[in-house]
Amino acid sequence: MSEQTPTPLPPRPDDATPTPVKSAANAAEREHRSVSRAAFRMGAGGLFSLVAGFASQMVIAALFGVGEAMDAYLTALAVPIYAQAVLLAGLSFAFIPTYIQSMEEGDEEGACRLIGTFFWLIGGVLLLVSLAVSFFAAPIIDLIAPGLTPDKAQLAAAMLSVLAFSVVLNGYAVYTTGIQNARNQFFWPAFGGAVNSVVNIVVLLALYRFLGPMALAWSFLAATAGQAIVT
């Protein structure tokens, strides 16, 4: 008897060679999952930041309420906030596009050099601004809030001499947040607000008995430093 050649089995669907359509669909699905995870992390970080920020405001209101200390604090705080808005507004436009281009071209060394250059540039410029604001705190308060009483103006100037250095720290927070976002890492930048608020609460409660109203300035500075570190 002659041997019969076995009939080959038809290929199963799972063994089929992937088609370009399937590959594209798989890539789209992976991208969708990645975007979903990033959105979830940003949402979680934002929610934590919202709750912690609300708690921080409650603690400040409970300790100081409405009065001379809060008037002086809000007056002093307006200066670094305005300085940050002016000095940091164009940072993302100047740095991020160039950084992303270097990463897309595979120039890791160039991207690292760019990070280092902007790190020292931001630190140098903002430190000079902070030193100037801190040194001239009293004249600045007299200029922007001439209607304050002498005691309130003196307290605001003392607070501003501390709060001025938040410009440097917030500059680094904005800078590192831009780098993280460019790398598709969104959780810590979104969670940074929560760290800011938690540090603010802890430092404020720790220093309130010893420094009184000045604890507001030091807790804000520490909170800004905490946010800069985690982002």
Helical element count?
A: 9
- Got a strand count? 0
Q: Low-confidence runs (pLDDT<50, min 5 residues)?
A: none
Order of helices and strands: HHHHHHHHH
Q: Tell me the distance between the termini.
A: 79 Å
* Content-based structural category: mainly alpha
- Mean pLDDT over the residues: 82
How would you characterize the largest beta sheet? none
Instruction: Give the CA-based shape.
Output: globular
User: How many structurally independent domains?
Assistant: 1
Portion in beta strands: under 5%
Bin the helical content.
over 70%
Rg calc: 27 Å
Structure description:
This protein is an all-alpha fold and 231 residues long. The protein has one domain. It has nine helices and no strands. Helix 7 runs parallel beside helix 9. The longest helix is centred in the N-terminal third of the chain and has 45 residues. The radius of gyration is 27 Å and the shape is globular.
